[in-house]
Hints:
The chain is α/β, with parallel strands linked by helices. Helices cover 38% and strands 17% of the residues. The protein contains 8 helices and 9 strands. The two termini are 22 Å apart.
Amino acid sequence: MKFKRILLKLSGEALMGAKQYGIDIDRVAQYAEDIKAVHDAGVEIAIVIGGGNIYRGLSAEKAGMDRVQADYMGMLATVINSMALQDALEKIGLRTRLLTAIKMEQICEPFIRRRAVRHLEKGRVVIFGAGTGNPYFTTDTAASLRAIEINADVVLKGTRVDGIYTADPEKDPEATRYEKISFQEVYDQGLNVMDMTAFTLCQENKLPIIVFDMNKPGNFKSLAEGEKIGTIVRD
């Protein structure tokens, strides 16, 4: 395997599958099988999931809600998604731990860095919920921060497109995909990979990001094995 320890970032919207809202159990089951294939090959896996399929803090703020209140509600949405993925993983035999930045002792452990690393070393899939625990920070930032804290080799951002393009491939048929690109080129071209805080964290800590299509079964394992899938961002 190319990587020893991976931070997998999934968007909440990805869990919707073909639905307009909520969680598509079939899509979650597919993700679980893909994660198991990589885990069974000996890779340590940590996961951060967004909450946009259930609740988006930014959208609520635009509708008039207090931003801090809205962001905390978004963090709770990520915990719901994390629990759904945890259930799917455990149904197929993986041992997991859900650690959250907001204490919820009845359903998960509080995030403690050393504990998280120990779980990974013991072969458990670790899911980080509730973002960073702070408003004004996205789950992309949480993914970058947790990846740095646990000394992950890479952030793999699983999306519904197969990499970073010169333009939105769903809107522009002329858009072309990058196989690799530098952090500076992403800045200069204004490409939408992660929010700026998350992106800068990865750049400053020399942590590569790979954007790939998580919806294609087997892609995650092929990427972990070193195949050139998606787009890699590194200096």
